[in-house]
Amino acid sequence: MAETSDIVGGGPKKVLYTLSTISKIGVGKAAKALTAKNTCKACAYGMGGQHGGMTNELDEFPSVCNKSVQAQSTDIQPAIPEPVFQHTIAELAELSGREMERLGRLGTPLFRRAGSDRFEPLDWETALDHAAHRLVETDPQRTFFYSSGRSSNEAGFLFQLLARAYGTNNVNNCSYYCHQATSEGLATTIGKGTATVELEDLTGADLIFVIGANPSSNHPRFIHMLKNCRERGGQVIVINPAKEPGLVKFSVPKSPLSMLKGGSEIASDYLQPRIGSDIALLKGLVKAVLEQGTEDADFIARHGADFEAFAQDISALTWDEVVAATGLAQSDIERVAASYGRSKAAVFAWGMGMTHHVHGTANVEAIANLALVRGMIGKRFAGLLPLRGHSNVQGIGTIGVKPVLAKDVLKRMEEVFNVRFPEEKGLDTMACLKRAEAGEVDAAVIMGGNLWAATPDTRFSTRAMGAIGFKLFLTTTLNQGHVHGLGEGEVMILPVTARDEEWEPTTQESMFNFVRLSDGGIERIGTVRPESWILGQLGKRMLPGSPIDFYAFSGHAKLRDAIAAIVPGMEELADIDVAKREFHIRNRVLHVPEFGTADGRAHFVVTPIPQRQAGELMLASVRSEGQFNSIIYEETDSYRGKAGRYAVFLSAGDMEARGLSEGQRVRVRSSVGEMEGVATRFDLPAGSVLAYYPEANVLIGTEVDPRSKTPAFKSVPVSVVAA
What we know:
Elements: E1 9-10, H1 11-25, H2 27-35, H3 66-75, H4 89-92, H5 97-101, E2 110-112, E3 120-121, H6 124-136, E4 143-147, H7 153-166, E5 171-173, H8 180-189, E6 207-211, H9 215-218, H10 220-231, E7 235-239, H11 245-248, E8 249-251, H12 256-260, E9 264-265, E10 269-271, H13 278-292, H14 297-303, E11 304-305, H15 307-316, H16 319-326, H17 330-342, E12 346-350, H18 352-355, H19 360-372, E13 383-386, H20 393-398, H21 407-417, H22 429-437, E14 443-447, H23 451-454, H24 458-466, E15 470-475, E16 490-495, E17 506-509, E18 514-518, H25 531-542, H26 556-566, H27 576-579, E19 583-584, E20 602-603, E21 617-622, E22 627-628, E23 631-632, E24 647-650, H28 652-657, E25 665-669, E26 674-681, E27 688-692, E28 716-722
Helix pairs in contact: 1-2, 1-3, 6-25, 7-25, 7-26, 8-19, 13-16, 13-17, 13-19, 22-24
């Protein structure tokens, strides 16, 4: 591949790409979409809302990035021309993910009759009547409801309310495929499941760890904070098997100086552990901190719990074990620990490189341990920052789109609505699909996202989705999940408004626990409908005798009143549309060491080091610069030497050991499948392989972390041979 050591993230090429994208969609339309008071539709780093479309909560302008423009470019498309639906589903299934996105917006309800080979457009009344009829005739215990993280708090709350009133707790969201391990791992250590910092804390941190994440591609506006940290004399320590060019040097478009000098240095230090060896490295860092005597003994004594057993486990760990597991030199680990030991305020940010393992929850616990040993949780400018993907994935969880609700929340919801909800424990996402594969799911309601492409083991995903007799999708655009895994049953696809097209204001929650208000109000396609309106229409048809007036509760102000009365910390939501006052959710940000555990103390947790077969290759699936989750905007990756979607990234040593050359066709095999790709040299430690998601899903099994139920997208034993 092209040499990546000279690649600089961001910069003029990204600016030109943005200008090109805007010119395609029209400057007027782009300006209206980007400047209106609506929250960004891309990642959960957050921008927009009542501060202005391109402004964050610190009033920094312009806070816009390539991902923002890409998301807008999809929504601003015209409706898909009806002649497209004269093609068979098999013909549509030949399109790539990028080609599907570029068909245009879905502008009419579509229906695939059982066994039919194509979709047919329907009018709204017919579509809603039939969808409601099919759900009413289905046993609720043989259904599940799934939501992505792009929907509003209002639609999400009504979604889970409809599911529970209908009779199922099988309500889940995409976090089970991303950051559920974060919620589980933080619950056991600090008693809270989200970030402990707010955006302003990043402005005062003197050290920021970036662990198992590539924000240059996935959270570009976070890079601005990393650059600022370096410029004020702070450090940015990256822990990632891959030496990502955008984390080494990045030309920040909003910084003229950064652009003029050809990019800013981002990482002050960079550790590249073998894939899957994160716990060994994190424990090694703790070991070095203790040996160097830089632990915060006062914090541990005052606010810690279970430290003695934890310290004994660290003491018993030898440096030979750490070095053997990680492939890193002891001196490199000690150097980073010494930098950490000099820090006064450190923030730990991590992504799915930490959570996508069968030991993902333990990975997060190990990060929390490292932060706690120096008292870096519970004070200003320091703490924990899980880098969330979908723009409202955190909000969707906050308002109850999950299979198990806290008992007090469930009781309060029953009191407010004068109903009784089912008592059985709901199933997580993978469990629902396993049940579907077994023929035990007759209907599914899927709001946003691409569940088929997001699920590991593509053959399993196709079998599981295909076995569901009736699938109801709510979506803005068609994606591959609407034409693959359909089986022989019925499929209904309903077109929904984008966030800035909502008929009423909506709210979203950022990864910083900050709730924003989006005005909506832009009209592009007159035939699409808000998700809450659709859910209200379904509710009144499905449950006409319910004490819940679903049609009335499709009104957002009424929904916000209910959320404020039911969900702890969301009280200020009740009048947000009147006061226009956005807010941080109460009791989330930790600027004092008051933890949410039963005893009020932070708990150190012993995390065993996972075993690995010597000499085996371990694959991690990754995203490219030109994609967002499963949405593919560009077929090549500008930050990895223009690599294509079927690149198989290997170290130079691993390629040489297998007799492989750059650009050679290779076959990658795992225990569940195989794929052909192109051998591509990249800066990786020995034994580590990267391939793009979702193409590499054919290699990834359905085994999950037993605590978070998250699949191991990033630790897959594989072999690579010449094709």
